[in-house]
Protein 1
Amino acid sequence: TKKMILDLDTGVDDALALAYAIADPNIDLIGVVASYGNNLLEQTAKNSLQLLELLGQDVPVFKGLSHSSTTNHFTVMQVSKEIHGSNGIGNISLPEPSHQVQPKDGVDFIIEAAHQYNKDLIIVPTGPLTNLAAALHRDPQISQLIGNVTLMGGALTVEGNVSDVAEANINQDAEAANEVFTSPLPITMVGLDVTLRTLLTKKETQQWRNLGTPAGTAYADLTDFYIDAYYRLEIDKHGCAIHDPLAVGVAIDPSFVTILALPMKVITNKHNYARTIGDKARLNARHPNVKVAINVNQERFVPVFMNHLINLLANH
Ligand code: BDR
Ligand code: CA
């Protein structure tokens, strides 16, 4: 098993990634760090606490940073509310969390875990890369310690979802993303290239609903909200992209995707802001630190994901 930290901006697909990481016996989820993005930091931390309780898990939740270092506050985009609901989790209501967030800072938690678990640690950021960039600033040594960073973000071979070139997570903090990509960290980029091909439909959510459990119903409800939003906003008429779960899947089984090893950077100029692209200056790097997922075996991934979720949701 691998030790994993999820760095989530808990919206709907983050909620699915959380359930998957809990359900897969090959993953030892040692903590969740909260990020801003699909909603405010306070709300995403609360969502993670509530979902963990719904799923009967005692995993610590830490707060990361509430906004990028290039701004002094963060406001939730209207489109995020339309896609993920105003509470981030499809407007479902869950009991107030009985656990609290940990007193320790989320960035420090990442640093301590890197030292403790060394190459056994995988970090899966499914929101902005602000926390990870801050951790690299505070302790550059961790870039040699962490086993892998498998992140959901970016787009190399397709357009972005915020602009022609920008994907949402990278767009929240392109400066942080660029620091992470150009660091020595071993990175696997699971971007729109592959996540937009990995869809879930109401046929699948109906299977969760049929379980008749509180968790099955809650997960069917929050995912149906997201599927309806995809339909309404004409992002996809058949289903919704399970962006963040695919990053968890690839973290534990890279054979779900084919990769292109490439030294990557993120453009931080206004023009093309947040574009993820090969770094011309380092093109001949012998061992490029980024593996970009450019194709996915979604016919294999979706059933694996479904099996894990059904097993978990059936029991809670
Ligand atoms: C990413 O942006 C967020 O809205 C999703 O949760 C996902 O992590 C997709 O671009
Ligand atoms: Ca996310």
Protein 2
Amino acid sequence: KEAKLWGGRFKEGVTDAVERFTESISFDKQLYKQDIKGSRAHASMLAHQGLISASDRDSILEGLEEIERRIENGEFNWRADREDVHMNIEAALTDMIGEPAKKLHTARSRNDQVLTDFRLWCRDAIDGILVSMKQLQVSLLTLALRNEGLIVPGYTHLQRAQPVLLQHLLLAYVEEHCVYDVFIVVIILKMYVLSDLFTHLIKEVIRILGRLVDCRARMNFCPLGACALAGTGLPIDRFMTSEALGFTAPLRNSIDAVSDRDFVLEFLSANAITAVHLSRLGEEWVLWASEEFGFITPSDSVSTGSSIMPQKKNPDPMELVRGKSARVIGDLVTLLTLCKGLPHAYNRDLQEDKEPVFDSVKTILGMLEVSAEFALNISFNRERIQKALPAGHLDATTLADYLVNKGVPFRTSHDIAGKSVALCTLKNCQLLDLSLDELRSINPVFEEDVYDFLGVENAIQKFVSYGSTGSACVASQIDYWMKKLEMK
Ligand code: ARG
């Protein structure tokens, strides 16, 4: 058996069971790119500081280049007895270039190394998720553009509530994934900071402040050089490596640098929230695809069948979006539980932080991709929706608003409209089927113009408040998003 890189004080090797149990190479090899990148920056800094020679640095850089090539061509031999990605690469480098490789770990511990790799990996992962998220938004907006003017029942408590434009609902989904552009908005805010637009823009910022973008910015600080926990007596330059790796600055406190997993908790929280959004979307579409609702028909390309029931066509992708949200939530809970009992600084438990993150990212990317595809592959059954619209007195609140316009206090208006609904229930008809005499028998304030407010088509025209479902408001929201998503 090969001696461990840390084996100086040991007389015996570990048992096979311990080796199998403690290895992380089976999953952390995913960090190889970031590990090599970190080592390049570290070696260059060591040479700049006179801690290694320029020729040692060059051999290290050449060796790392070759290792990266081998990994990418599947020629690299990952060894469980070398524990993790860091030691696999360092040991392979030593096999390859000899003495200079032994200087690479100067003023570095795996504790700061793994976190440097992990922060870099998460940073890249966020960039990937942001692209997929934008793709989903574009798909939702495309679906909205294909269905201009379509009115659907809006629900609360899953009971019919008020009419809404389908576009309005689809834009609500788009808003949920509003996670970028924060910097632009902050700049705008600064520009207008002294003007009347201030309050309005503050609200805009709160809505737009992207969780992921925000988390990425807070994550982007460099642990490298914190070493095991205490820093080092050697004259390293942490600012140099931080800058070379594209971090904002080195982390201020070396103990914090190797202890902290807040950046992962925040990242996994953002993913869990996204997963919950997508799960709700999935639930809604699964419901709408049912015979009972019949609002949408997913195309064959996004449906699957039954092995026994020949007639079946199921919306499985969205059911799995709903189902896989459980994993993403679970990944967050795993990390929270992992961290809660740990003393500062590094503890080996923390090796368990990677798999939930890898799982969360992989799952969320799949969920985003399939939801975007599903959105482009559903058609709304206009006739069925149209037929369903008269049921449920969706115009009752508009009727109450009509009475408010006539000077009736809202509570009284609510009561009168409620009594009108009760009369409809008795007669088994719609509000617009009630005659003026019948309405006046409830309250004499009704006039002929009440019929401009009744019926779903009329009712929807009455919405004018900012952010409401009225056609003009929705058109301006569409316009906003088309510009933001560069669709025009
Ligand atoms: N594989 C380890 C991890 O992922 C690297 C750090 C190990 N450090 C140590 N002192 N054993 O956490």
Protein 3
Amino acid sequence: MAATPPNPAAATPRRKVSRHRGEGQWAAGHFTPLNANEQTKKDDDGLNVRTRIETIYSKRGFDSIDPGDLRGRMRWWGLYTQRKQGIDGGKTAVLEPEELDDSYFMLRVRIDGGALTTAQLRVIGEISQEFARGTADITDRQNVQYHWIRIEDVPEIWNRLEGVGLSTVTACGDTPRVMIGSPVAGIAEDEIIDGTPALEEMKRRVLNNPAYSNLPRKFKTAISGSPVLDVVHEINDVAFVGVEHPEHGPGFDLWVGGGLSTNPKLGVRLGAWVPIEDVPDVYEGVISIFRDYGYRRLRNRARLKFLVADWGAEKFRQVLEDEYLERKLTDGPAPADPTSRWRDHIGVHRQKDGRYYVGFAPRVGRVDGTILTKVADLAEAHGSGRVRTTVEQKMIVLDVEEGQVDSLVESLEALDLTARPSTFRRGTMACTGIEFCKLAIVETKARGASLIDELERRLPEFDEPLTINLNGCPNACARIQTADIGLKGQLVLNDRGEQVEGYQVHLGGALGLEPGFGRKVRGLKVTAEELPDYVERVLTRYQAEREDGER
Ligand code: SF4
């Protein structure tokens, strides 16, 4: 397989060097960094920051951290500084003076495929209680995110996580991020193909590997053989989607170039069918194309989607085949439409081995260390000790015998983790927001939770599948563009002309059946206070005026 050496300083250009700076692509010989981020990555591999954290920063404290590490390389090990508490959040009065600083971190634990054992979940819960003031959010990429982490505690946290086979490696940064997998891989009765062996091999090849630790930007991966299409494959940099080939049998349809944030784009199919044993090679080919040909001049053009948009599917496939795989791929069919409008596996479902899995819904992904420890206890008492996280900020307990299902459902209910959620609890997601995120403009988690409660009270009969996604800023961490009702946090003017927290509204986005981005209705903004009234009006009118079958 062709590959540009990972260290640009040591690399020998394979191609003629352009006289123009172009887009900073290594494959065109542009190894001189064109911005500060590229310079930081060239100065030192982000993976190397771990040694400094273990030997220097955790011992000497926050002030000893090199600024280049603090603002950049810490991310290669899942660490971001969190929002300074007391600013804008109105919490100053309840915090002690020593807490009014920004020396705490968010720490992201990668949970590839959302797959956890109860031993792992218990450790996640214990770390939350001991080092993260109880915080532990389930993210929309199957990760767990802690807040309030002190640099002094990070080595011990890593010890504990790694002791049960978990890691924070490249959970953030310009790297291969967590690999999303079907949370019911290997067990679902309707599964087309189990992608787990390919996912494990992809991890083995690229994680903690300097050949893939300096990408132009983040690189998101998804693989699923579920006919529910449960990994948001449309918005990943690379995705493998289970299909049945008429001659060759089950395998994966290859998608590239999806992504939200600036200039959101849905991924495109390359028209190639990939047997499971070839998935890791193809994956390595695609990530290598991104490393070598990806744009590095401007951060906001550095995602794979821009290269795919410029090249088109045909050229991308040809480069992948000719330069990286050195063989042709087999043509294949597109995935069928999803078999369900909900893609989240909530509720009780039969497994192929006759046992059951039970999906349940916290509110907007918010749980805590105590709850997670209790979920681990329940999963052990009722199942075989396997738990999953989903891309909807939900969770699943696997391998429950029929006679244990009711008891598990009731026990979860007692923890306010319902397997029979309302449409609103089931379909609402929220990003981190102003509570902890430095980029946030508005509150999201608490607002999302109160919106759920309010809508449940006002519209108790509403049972259509529906997604409501809240972001705290113009970024897309909660996928607002793909929700029926997407709410992008910003400051807006209220009736009295005062600037208050509110949202720009996007309507009608979807993934799965008829995927597309929601329309930003020009000028349509709501204050946070008006939000329940607004959503209630939209839904009531939708129910009154929709045509037959209209979503
Ligand atoms: Fe932070 Fe904005 Fe992402 Fe929300 S969408 S987590 S506010 S960056």
Protein 4
Amino acid sequence: MKKFADKTVLVTGGSRGIGAAITRRFVEEGANVAFTYNHSKEKALALSATLNKSGGKTIAIQANSAIPNDVTQAVEQTVKEFGGIDILVNNAGIYIGKPFEDHTLEDYDEIMAVNVRAVYVASQAAVKYMPAGGRIITIGSNMGDNAVGPQTTLYTMSKSSLQGFTRGLARDLGSKKITVDLVQPGPVDTDMNPAGTELANFLLSRMALAEYGTGDDIAGLVSFLASQEGKYITGSFLTIDGGFNA
Ligand code: NDP
């Protein structure tokens, strides 16, 4: 029997990048997977169709993480389609980098709405349905511990606040035997942070392994945390960054 054969997973932001890799991994390991997208409708529908063709059970849900009602509805739709929710992966995220003086209140509101508020809203909506053994896994960033350089204030602030969220919620949900953890990737080759750029060369110079990570690297860790083997890990931050923060 596959590892997640009787499990339902919701991944936010599964249309591209790390979220798409996490979606693929859970499908390969037997789970029913609902995933959200915002702008990338074609990519989301193509991913879902490909996975379903090869025997997977997926649905792609249009849900803007910046809109709380969209997030709640995505949880409700997952439960309606698959009969429950066992694992929530809060992956959707955005990066806004610019000189501090140029940040606007709109930038602040947008990044906090997507990177932080949506995580809070999705978790609260999912917990209503989550059984013992449930998992809440959020994708933070190694920048939660290490602001890499200038122009990162907003993003770093948003990812650090996920640490407080993870600590608190792990204690709130411990009695329900639901674990809550934060995965903190370093540079991963996606649209958000493509390898082969000038910035990438700078980032590589700071890493012990001097190579970009892949979505699959992150999906492997998420899968481990979500499995039975991860049952004693909660309130933890797992940094997976090729030694960037070493
Ligand atoms: P990408 O930009 O490649 O993909 C982002 C994904 O999030 C897309 O599927 C996108 O969907 C979705 N998304 C963005 N905004 C929204 C929104 N408002 N509502 C719903 N979905 C949304 O990013 P990555 O895959 O690189 O990043 C995934 C996560 O990993 C993020 O939380 C990011 O902060 C984190 N991370 C990434 C690192 C990296 O180096 N790549 C390093 C550390 C952390 P759509 O296209 O449909 O709008």
